[in-house]
Design a protein that fits this description.
The chain is mainly beta. The protein is about 0% helix and about 60% strand. The protein has strands at about 1-5, 10-15, 20-25, 35-40, 45-50, 55-60, 65-70, 75-80, 90-100, 100-105, 110-115.
Length: about 120
């Protein structure tokens, strides 16, 4: 079984920065892809950024140029560097791992951006 734990969320002012981390543990053999999703109150969960096993990245239009997704394979950890935060970035951020055609989700970490 695989467990994902997000950390690094918090309260920041508009224009500030945060770096989220997602540590994976358990039976990690081969990760197909990892990504960050977010869900704001009253809204559906949306894709923020993804990174494939080959290192290819993709971003939602709303965060491109401000957020950077990366990974440390030795530590089985996924990161999301968030710069130039806006109030509309306020949400619970979740990491997702895909392995052997199964998906795993973390518990989420709250990001709140004040104006």
């Amino acid at each position: 079984q695989v467990q994902l734990v997000e950390s690094g969320g918090g309260l920041v002012q508009a224009g500030g920065s945060l770096r989220l981390s997602c540590a994976a543990s358990g039976s990690i053999f081969s990760i197909d892809a990892m990504g960050w999703y977010r869900q704001a109150p009253g809204k559906q969960r949306e894709l923020v950024a993804t990174i494939t096993d080959g290192g290819s990245t993709a971003y939602a239009d709303s965060v491109r140029g401000r957020f950077t997704i990366s990974r440390d394979n030795a530590k089985n950890t996924l990161y999301l560097q968030m710069n130039g935060l806006k109030p509309e970035d306020t949400a619970v951020y979740y990491c997702r791992l895909t392995m052997f055609r199964k998906e795993y989700w973390g518990q989420g970490t709250q990001v709140t951006v004040s104006s």
